[in-house]
Amino acid sequence: MHFAPVEADLRTSTERLEIDVATISDLPEILELASRKYGKPYNQSSFWKWRYFENPIARVNLYVVRTETNKIAAMQAVSMYSMRIDNEPHHAHILTAAFTAPEYRRRGLFRSLVEKIVQDLWQQETALLFAFPNKLSAKGFRVFAGWRESRSLSLFVRPLFGQSRSAASSDRSPRMVLDNTSLGIQVIARDEFLVGGDEILTHQKAALSFIDRSREYLNWRYNRTSTMEYDILHAESGNGHSGYLVLKPTHLKGVPVGLVVDLAARSHRTAHELLRAAVMESRFWGLRMLVFLVGRTNPYARALTMNGFVKLPTPIVPRGFPLFTYDFQHAEKKMAPAVTDMHWYLTWGDTDVV
């Protein structure tokens, strides 16, 4: 356990607060705290077990601030995933799930939690720490020492016109979505991943940065959660599995849209067919738009253009996607730029950035 005094605002309170790491026994209180501001999935115990307390993929610590009566006043999670940068393995840490009880706000608890995590990671000689905070938390990161904001993420959209069908069936058994006989590529919708993204992207590893996407990771990330739904498309050819695309149907400002949260393809042609199938699937589900968020590295730019995706100019993007990185001075080289160069989309580790 990690204990440290938290500097509360002594003008309003002389209460002593301490930081430690939560355990599964704290789950009921964590649910109560998270539910005070958010609904699904934060009010579901299955979500917290899947993502934080029983995560088989990442090493997770959920830091909490406790009061003198052992109540949780605030919390901040940090998860460590394996990441490959310039074909070398590294540890990537991401901050998620920041909550503060209303009666304990404006006392510096959020800052204290972030600083405690940074302090612990310094001792581990961590190379990379980053976060996608919401609008409120972003104000804090802008004044926290050592943090840098990046605005290099690009948003692509694909409007969907014409007649849309309503998909009333909930059957998620494997089914054919697209069969391009001239290219010998079939796109099939199925839940289970039979190969990992790392195997598909073998030829690109030296040029790209990405969180390692093993078969185990992909199945945990998209199939083992009961709180989020994904439509998973697999590209298959004579050479076996050549790519996949993960589509997340959701609503943004009341409009049904599809988020392309992950894409890995062995070739440009495969990427093109997967995106074409995603357009077909989105129409099948009655969606009105496809959305694609990507960093500076975008190996499938031509496939996006050929499938009608348009990059939105920054001034008209509906909302920002703030990305903050922390530079550890002991790192042999600066790892922060690798995050915005990453071959990764709306999913970062265990988080859908929407």
Primary descriptors:
354 residues, alpha+beta, Aminopeptidase, eight-stranded mixed β-sheet, 9 helices, 18 strands, globular, disordered N terminus
Summarize the structure.
By secondary structure, the chain is an alpha+beta fold. It has helices at 27-35, 45-53, 109-123, 135-141, 197-200, 215-223, 268-284, 301-306, 336-340, and strands spanning 18-21, 59-66, 72-85, 88-100, 128-131, 147-150, 154-159, 175-180, 185-189, 210-211, 231-237, 240-252, 255-265, 289-294, 310-311, 323-326, 347-348, 351-352. The longest helix has 17 residues, at 268-284.
Can you walk through the features of this model?
This protein is α+β, with helices and mostly antiparallel strands. The protein folds into two domains: 18-150, Aminopeptidase (3-Layer(aba) Sandwich); 154-320, 3-Layer(aba) Sandwich (Aminopeptidase), CATH 3.40.630. A hairpin with a 2-residue loop joins strand 17 and strand 18 (351-352). 23% of the residues lie in helices and 32% in strands. The protein is globular and about 75 Å long. The longest helix has 17 residues, at 268-284. The chain has helices at residues 27-35, 45-53, 109-123, 135-141, 197-200, 215-223, 268-284, 301-306, 336-340, and strands spanning 18-21, 59-66, 72-85, 88-100, 128-131, 147-150, 154-159, 175-180, 185-189, 210-211, 231-237, 240-252, 255-265, 289-294, 310-311, 323-326, 347-348, 351-352.
